[in-house]
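Quiz preparation item.
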């Protein structure tokens, strides 16, 4: 309604006010000259409360016109009396709306106990202003009238009008009745049944059937129905129904109050007292029930959200454990293979030395994973003790860039550093801060891809040093930007991902930076638009390059040579001095005596593929190796192997996809044995392997005894048929 022009809205309001005034007059005892229940007061306050104050004059003018037309034109009241009543009603409405807005309750509603309990004294105060003027006008008009009883009747009728009708008006103007559409048809039927039952019970109570005065309060218990099952607005509607039925019957001499022989003033007071007793507790009860339901809904929502978060965390944990097993088995596989063929290389020291270097390199990968796990564990328990000292952040950044440059050069990447020709002194642990920037630069180089651009910049402002590590790689999806620093989070979790890792490196970065009093954040403009990691650290001071070397950067030690101190123990991890494989396998010549086969080994980790090929050749097989899925499919067609050992997690094309394509190719013989050789060893991984067309699922590192058993007793084809579209 109030989207219309102001004068049209005011005209509609004036008409509604006039009709409500006629209802109020119809419910008035002529001897009292005052309505027992005055609905226009609720309409007037509700509308003024809803509209902005600058539009109040339109509606005040409309209410004045409606009052005058009703009093003078329809009820022949003297013009001065009508003007006085109009003034009283207008003052009352303005004071009520002003008080509600003054107490900052722009969203006043019967759904809140606080609003209901606040609205009662505000309505009482506003009604007191109107009653003070109105009672004086009545006494002027009728000198025999008693001021205070008249004041009490006026005040009570207007309070009930404001409490019962006002919130209904505001709800209607705010279109809050739309929630009725959300009620199911049975609930709508129940609402109608409740109002009809209230009207019927009220009629029974206020009829000649039960003339006992105390029986009037029998209508009150039915208000539990709307209070507990619906809302406060439904309670207001039910009380309005009770008021209309009770006053109408009493006016016509029916019911306990009319037949009690009371004076008119006392009859009016008895009716108003009944409505007050019905309204106050049940409005508060309904508001409390709504708040309780809202709290229960909120709790249920939070529980559901927390359950979802826990499920996601559990899923990340399971994924992390699977990735951890895979990342540990990958370097262990070539070590196990090398140990298996070691005794056969006694006369080839050059090959043994090359294998020794390979095993030490793979063992270094394992130790790096263990270091990360220990760091996460200690940081999560708060057991990391930072060895703070003044360090030159600029020099530390230069060292980090120099460390990563060989990796960048190998990928033909452009690595630039824009650093100041000054010394930026920060208080921190040089080993840990070096670890942070090594990690960020390593990630940028690893994920950006070949021919990418990587840039490191540093700026200082307001006592803070800000370091940006930027690249033009694949970027970070928006949904991962807030989660990327959480433990076990990886953007690419597919089997075809080209890069390993546990998903805890950035968690370490955030924890270490925050422990230094800094912050770290990630931004990305979208897919293939690169990423930007920003680190801020408190800057102690800036020195020229010629400054004293007393605060020179301490050279960080390698993680494997670093003594890491924390609260309850000291851990030292030393690099291996050498390997001494046990000759147990060599003492069993039968392990190597198996039927020779033509074998293809496919693994993106070249060391794993090469060392497994050495083991298989030692068994007498003819072996070729490939390092990706597409070349494996070509080799299967050209080389015609009897057995293919196929890694699962390979970049570009996973082992599952290779197996599906091989099984769907008519040129590939059905008796080709496919062996999934992978670091993923959960039961679900085995089921997926069988479903993809594999005959056997083996977990790295595989023992030579298992290989020998496989070649002596190859399995029969027990795989399920592939889908038609495979």
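Solution:
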């Amino acid at each position: 309604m109030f989207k219309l022009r102001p004068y049209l809205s005011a005209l509609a309001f004036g008409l509604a006010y006039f009709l409500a005034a006629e209802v109020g007059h119809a419910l008035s005892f002529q001897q009292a000259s005052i309505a027992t229940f005055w609905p226009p007061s609720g309409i007037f306050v509700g509308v003024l409360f809803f509209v902005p104050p600058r539009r109040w004059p339109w509606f005040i003018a409309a209410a004045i016109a409606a009052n005058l037309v009703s009093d003078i034109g329809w009820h022949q009241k003297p013009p001065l009396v009508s003007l006085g009543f109009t003034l009283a009603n207008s003052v009352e409405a303005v004071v009520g709306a002003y008080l509600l807005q003054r107490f900052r309750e722009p969203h006043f509603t019967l759904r809140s106990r606080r609003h209901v309990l606040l609205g009662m004294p505000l309505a009482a105060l506003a009604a007191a202003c109107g009653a003070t003027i109105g009672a004086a006008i009545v006494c002027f008009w009728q000198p025999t009238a008693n001021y205070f009883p008249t004041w009490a009747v006026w005040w009570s009728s207007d309070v009930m009008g404001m409490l019962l009708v006002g919130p209904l008006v505001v709800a209607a103007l705010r279109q809050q009745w739309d929630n009725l559409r959300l009620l199911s048809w049975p609930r709508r039927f129940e609402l109608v049944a409740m109002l009809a039952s209230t009207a019927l019970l009220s009629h029974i109570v206020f009829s000649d059937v039960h003339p006992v005065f105390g029986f009037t309060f029998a209508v009150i218990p039915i208000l539990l129905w709307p209070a507990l099952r619906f809302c406060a607005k439904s309670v207001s509607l039910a009380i309005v129904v009770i008021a209309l039925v009770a006053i109408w019957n009493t006016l016509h001499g029916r019911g306990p109050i009319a037949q009690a022989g009371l004076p008119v003033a006392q009859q009016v007071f008895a009716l108003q007292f009944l409505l007050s007793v019905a309204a106050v507790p049940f409005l508060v009860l309904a508001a409390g029930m709504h708040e309780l339901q809202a709290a229960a809904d909120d709790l249920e929502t939070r529980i559901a959200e927390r359950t979802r978060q826990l499920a996601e965390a559990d899923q990340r944990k399971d994924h992390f454990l699977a990735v951890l097993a895979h990342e540990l088995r990958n370097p262990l596989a070539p070590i196990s293979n090398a140990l298996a063929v070691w005794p056969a290389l006694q006369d080839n020291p050059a090959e043994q030395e090359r294998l020794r270097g390979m095993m030490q390199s793979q063992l270094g990968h394992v130790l790096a994973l263990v270091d990360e796990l220990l760091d996460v564990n200690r940081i999560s328990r708060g057991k990391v003790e930072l060895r703070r000292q003044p360090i030159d952040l600029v020099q530390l950044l230069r060292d980090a860039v120099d460390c990563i440059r060989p990796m960048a050069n190998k990928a033909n990447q452009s690595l630039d550093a824009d650093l100041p020709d000054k010394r930026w002194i920060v208080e921190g642990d040089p080993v840990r801060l070096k670890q942070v920037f090594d990690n960020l630069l390593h990630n940028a180089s690893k994920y950006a891809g070949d021919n990418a651009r990587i840039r490191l910049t540093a700026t200082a402002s307001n006592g803070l040093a800000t370091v940006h590590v930027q690249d033009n790689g694949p970027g970070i999806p928006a949904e991962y930007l807030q989660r990327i620093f959480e433990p076990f989070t990886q953007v690419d979790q597919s089997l075809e991902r080209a890069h390993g890792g546990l998903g805890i490196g950035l968690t370490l970065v955030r924890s270490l930076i925050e422990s230094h009093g800094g912050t770290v954040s990630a931004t990305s403009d979208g897919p293939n638009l690169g990423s930007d990691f920003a680190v801020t650290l408190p800057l102690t001071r800036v020195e020229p390059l010629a400054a004293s070397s007393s605060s020179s950067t301490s050279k960080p030690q390698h993680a494997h040579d670093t003594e890491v101190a924390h609260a309850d123990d000291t851990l030292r991890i030393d690099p291996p001095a050498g390997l001494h494989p046990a000759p147990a396998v060599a003492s069993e010549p039968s392990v190597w005596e198996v039927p020779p086969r033509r074998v293809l080994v496919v693994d993106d980790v070249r060391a794993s593929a090469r060392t497994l090929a050495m083991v298989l050749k030692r068994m007498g097989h003819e072996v070729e190796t490939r390092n990706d899925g597409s070349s494996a499919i070509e080799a299967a067609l050209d080389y015609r192997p009897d057995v293919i050992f196929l890694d699962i997690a390979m970049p570009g094309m996973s082992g599952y996809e290779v197996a599906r394509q091989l099984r769907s190719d008519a040129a590939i013989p059905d008796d080709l044995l496919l062996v999934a050789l992978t670091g993923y060893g959960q039961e679900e991984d085995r089921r997926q392997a069988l479903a993809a067309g594999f005959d056997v699922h083996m977990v790295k590192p595989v023992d030579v005894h298992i290989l020998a058993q496989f070649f002596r007793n190859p399995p029969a084809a027990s795989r399920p048929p592939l889908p038609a579209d495979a």
